[in-house]
UniProtKB/TrEMBL annotation:
Keyword Transmembrane included in the entry's annotation: yes
Residues annotated as domain G-protein coupled receptors family 1 profile: 37-283
Entry keyword set: Cell membrane, G-protein coupled receptor, Membrane, Olfaction, Receptor, Sensory transduction, Transducer, Transmembrane, Transmembrane helix
Name of the protein: Olfactory receptor
Keyword Manganese belongs to the record: no
Family to which this protein belongs: Belongs to the G-protein coupled receptor 1 family.
Source organism superkingdom: Eukaryota
Cellular location(s): Cell membrane; Membrane
Major location (coarse): membrane
Function in brief: Putative odorant or sperm cell receptor.
MF terms in GO: G protein-coupled receptor activity; olfactory receptor activity
Membrane spanning stretches: 22-43, 55-78, 98-116, 136-158, 199-221, 233-254, 266-285
Pfam families: 7tm_4 (PF13853)
Amino acid sequence: MNSSVTEFILFGLTQDPVKQKAVFGVFLIVYLATLLGNFLILVTIKTSKTLGSPMYFFLFYLSFSDACLSTTIAPRLIVGAITQKNTISYNECMTQVFAAHFFGCLEIFVLILMAFDRYIAICKPLRYTTIMSQHVCSVLMILSWVGSCIHSSAQIFLALRLPFCGSNVIDHYFCDFQPLLKLACMDTYVINLLLVSNSGAICTVSFIILLMSYVVILYSLRNHSAEGRRKALSTCTSHFIVVVLFFGPCIFIYTRPPTTFPIDKMVAVFYTIGTPLLNPLIYTLRNVEVKNSYRKIFKVFITWERKEEAEWEFLGNWNNVHPGIN
């Protein structure tokens, strides 16, 4: 890397002071809600005995990747909205590029695994427990982590080769590869082709695979009972909503020539901050088993709280009756 730039300035979503206050308030609430929603899913799946199927095993890692992806990007956007100069060092910028692509790619692979799980459950129900064993699910998740690491390593390898010797203002709210290409002091045509063939190909191919899997699933449902079709459609609809909300913006950003549009930053908000918030809502509101597990956890918490209150009340009454006994 031959660069005279040691730090970058993130332009953010807006430079209007009034709008910045709105950005701070809105995205602070969104980020906290994202952490709370995904944390509840993580705790519920880990503590519930009824959510031990492969679907919830993969949902656990989807929530984990959502929380990590949002944490990689949202805090700096929130802090930058109330500071006059939102700077990020070169090393921090490269780290953000790596982390954003790592957890974004992990989410893609987990969504594919969830679709595969639904395909086996609906199309090959008699072999489901054999195919989707705990060992197989663990191996698939390990491969997803390895694949995500390879993808993000390729991204950071290309980013580290970019020389920066002019402007250091990134017209974005986080460090991403395409905004960095605009600042590089070199011809970036070939590198952009590599970017499209890497990130763009992963997004597009994964989206096509997911669409094909849902088509096969819907076709196979014609032989199921009305109740079976309703339950399968409810689950698949949740997955499909997540897929569209996540892959649509990703494909728009990473599968085109090195040109920028005013809408790019708002589109990026959908898959970096919006989807991590919506995933817990979608899987909670449309999933009876998760909602029942939530209720059990809340009942246990309320019972424990009432027990604590009763013990403190008993101790208070005891001290009133026997003031000399400690």
